[in-house]
Amino acid sequence: MPEQPDTPDAPARGAAKSSAESRAKFRVRSFSMRGHNRMARDFDEILERHGDDYLIDLPAGGATATIADDARVDLTAEFGREAPLVVEIGPGNGEQLTHAAQAHPDWNFLAFEAWHPGAARCVGNFARAGVTNVRVIEADAAQAVPIVFGLEIARDADDVQGGYGVGVDGTGRTTGRRDPAHPNSSNPLAHELWTFFPDPWRKAKHHKRRLVNELFAATVAGVLEPGGTWRLATDWENYAWQMRDVVEASPHFTNPHAGERPDPADPEPERGGFAPRFEGRLLTHFEERGRLADRPPHDIVGVRVS
């Protein structure tokens, strides 16, 4: 995946900036917009035919792939039922979600996909498979998830800018809890959240762009029910070690595989902390390419503590 220059989003023009727009310039994006305009046109027909069935349309925010701070969504109404919820961050072309939705028709699946052609590909795969228990929100998960699930935003003195807790990605630093006053806080908590093969941002100077960090762990904690599972996977070794470290350092999670499956290449080779391969994860073409390039995947699991 092409890596973007280390520059902030340009501020919106026109009227005085909203709180979302003023924070946008501080955002460090964990994704890149690959061929966005050209490829988007290729998927217009798919979205015209099936978008209403699968896309949750929310008002846009002040920067690329963001939603408005005051966006409101009722997930139970969107799915038309109450059911165990699984959230996937970055579903790619939707292979994994299609497979999971077919295997668990009694579950609801919600994806966050920042790349417009990726969201369209997901919709196409869902429609071809005929699954009805999947929805997609086209947005950067780091920014959108706290809004969609009504998470509490920290207001520590070290984090506050303009009265709003700001993390390194410019979004709210969440506490790992719901905000009872937030209109979206009544949305169901997730049974599982999946972060499979996020962009590795291979260059050391770009590691700060990686999605999985301390701030995102708190966001995931706010989405999961007590005892819920955060499943992660990557085929980049140093990202796997980072994921393991994030899970084990978080007060919100325990690693049920601590000490297991040590990695000889790990700077702490005896430490381990890696899970067996998640049986529910489809072997995608993306993962197969990594295996052929001698990059076997690492699985990491975090269990939400009460």
Verbal overview:
By secondary structure, this protein is α/β, with parallel strands linked by helices. It has helices at 19-24, 36-42, 44-54, 75-79, 95-103, 116-129, 141-148, 214-223, 237-249, 285-292, and strands at 85-89, 108-112, 134-137, 151-153, 160-161, 164-165, 174-178, 190-196, 224-234, 253-254, 298-304. The protein is built from 10 helices and 11 strands. The longest helix has 14 residues, at 116-129.
Helix content range: 25-40%
Integer average pLDDT = 85
The first-to-last residue Cα distance is 37 Å
Computed structural class: alpha/beta
Q: Tell me, what's the shape? A: globular
Strands ordered across the widest β-sheet: 3-2-1-8-9-11-10
Q: How many DSSP E strands?
A: 11
Q: How much of the residues is beta strand, in percent?
A: 15-25%
Topology as a string of helices (H) and strands (E): HHHHEHEHEHEEEEEHEHEHE
Which regions are unreliable across 5 or more consecutive residues at pLDDT < 50? 1-28, 31-36, 157-170
| Gyration radius, rounded | 19 Å
The largest pleated sheet is described as: 7 strands, mixed
Tell me the number of helical segments per DSSP (H or I, 4 or more residues long): 10
EC number: 2.1.1.33
Enzyme class: transferase
Keywords: Methyltransferase, S-adenosyl-L-methionine, Transferase, tRNA processing
Binding site for substrate: 203, 235, 284-287
Short description:
The protein has 10 helices and 11 strands. It has about 300 residues and is an alpha/beta fold. It is an enzyme of class 2 (transferase).
Identify the notable features of this structure and list them briefly:
306 residues; alpha/beta; seven-stranded mixed β-sheet; two-stranded antiparallel ribbon; 11 strands; globular; transferase; SAM-dependent_MTases_sf; tRNA (guanine-N(7)-)-methyltransferase; EC 2.1.1.33; methyltransferase
